[in-house]
Amino acid sequence: MEESKVRFHETNEGRETSQGFAGFEGNNVLLLLVSVGISLVLSQGVDNLNFPFWGNILVMAFPIVVVSAYVFGLKQGKPHSYDIELAEWLIIKLTGINYFSPRQVEQLKLPWTETVKNSTPPPPTPDAKNR
Questions:
Q1: Contact at 8 Å (CB) between 88 and 101?
Q2: b/e per residue 54-72 (b: at least 16 CB within 10 A)
Q3: Structure confidence by residue, pLDDT tens digits, 53-92
Q4: 78 by DSSP, 3-state: which?
Q5: Residue-by-residue DSSP string for 96-109
Q6: What pLDDT band is residue 8 in, cutting at 50, 70 and 90?
Q7: Averaged pLDDT for residues 40-59
Q8: Which of 15, 36, 38, 70 has minimal CB crowding within 10 Å?
Q9: CA distance 36 to 61
Q10: pLDDT for position 112
């Protein structure tokens, strides 16, 4: 009669999960928290202006909508620097200024990239003759 044995395998489930809240993952949750804080501060300022109820809602929703559009459109699920590279590309296309052109980049002067001016080998040392 054969005994059944239980095999244990390491699964690393914790490494494969991502933390999130309301669709925001990782550090993007901090952007959501900041936008909620800005909305609360704006609500106090708008409340003093005696706007109607729907006006308060629109003003309070603005930071959250902008941050949500930014995160879901340009950050989450995209490569690491997608938002920055897209902004650089848009600036270059809209202004017509090619900021990253080779004309505006200074050439590095590194010793190993310089051409060798003296191609003759150095004279042998006196110690090399005695061998």
A1: no
A2: eebeebbeebeeebbeebe
A3: 888 888 889 999 999 998 888 787 788 888 888 888 888 8
A4: coil
A5: ---TT-GGGSPPP-
A6: confident
A7: 82
A8: 15
A9: 9
A10: 72
End-to-end CA distance of the chain, in Å? Answer: 79
| Separation between Cα atoms, residue 102 and residue 96, nearest integer Å | 15
User: 76: helix, coil or strand?
Assistant: coil
User: What is the mean predicted confidence (pLDDT) over 92-121?
Assistant: 66
**Whether the predicted pLDDT of 33 surpasses 70:** yes
Q: What is residue 90's three-state secondary structure?
A: helix
How far is it, in rounded angstroms, from Cα 25 to Cα 69?
14
Secondary structure, 3-state, 9-67: CCCCHHHHCCCEECCEECCHHHHHHHHHHHHHHHHHHHHCCCCCHHHHHHHHHHHHHHH
Q: Which two tokens stand for residue 89?
A: 């590309």
